[in-house]
Amino acid sequence: MDSLSIPCQFTLKRYLPTKGCLAAGNGGLGQQTNGVGDKDGVIIVDHGSRRKESNLMLNEFVTMFRDKTGYLIVEPAHMVRTFPSSQFGSGAGLCAWTAACTCRMCSAATFHELGSCAGPQELAEPSITNAFSSCVQQGANRVIVSPFFLFPGRHWHQDIPSLTAEAAKEHPGVSYVITAPLGLHGLLVDVVNDRIKHCLKHVAGDEAECAACAGTGKCRVY
Asked: What is the count of structural domains for the chain?
């Protein structure tokens, strides 16, 4: 049987995912023990963005996550391929995405601002492949891929398992687990409520902008 990654199965009971995650990788399928150990690497993967600032925010979150959890090996990763803005001059931005990601936005690749594209494609760094290798180089013998997504859509069902399986081929003997996305976790209620309260205080002039919207002027009354 080829190595396949099987994501966690969901249950709506109490809005939490089930405890059991099937692991996959070069050691085959098997139930893994609970908890992150010293030989586990964690990859937090998001979709990736044409905006460099958005991609850098994942790095900041990974630092926060590592500091708070105490996990030794934690790496960020992005899914998408991009054309580098350096190929197109100032103000062009990233002109197109390609099908490393299969969502409609990426596969359409219609974000042209300066006409037809030329030049090499690049992965928005770090890719899942690079993050996987970095975990192994730091001593991980199991890699836990945690999708920084809200719901179990196409990326979770297809893209992330495919990209992770490809990355694992380079590291025989290293297993991996793809965890559930954030989903209907009860703590997200607190996160959303906290963000709403903070933004309302900012609009009232009682709080500074948060890191997400700082400098954008988006958090205001329209």
From this structure: 3
Helix (H) or strand (E) holding 178: strand 175-178
DSSP β-bridge partners for residue 22: 31
Task: In whole angstroms, give the CA distance from residue 97 to residue 210.
Answer: 29
Q: How far does Cα 46 stand from its chain's mean position?
A: 2
- 34-66 pLDDT, tens digit each: 688 999 999 999 988 877 888 889 999 999 999
For 32-155, list the strands marked E by DSSP: 40-46, 73-78, 81-82, 97-98, 122-123, 142-147
Alpha helical stretches, state H, 91-127:
104-108
Helix axes 160-168, 128-137, angle to 10 degrees: 40
Range of the domain at 59: 19-79+128-183
CA distance 33 to 162: 24
Query: Looking at the structure, do residues 119 and 41 belong to the same domain, yes or no?
Result: no
The whole-angstrom separation of Cα 129 and Cα 50 is 19
Least confident of 9-23, 152-166, 197-211: 9-23
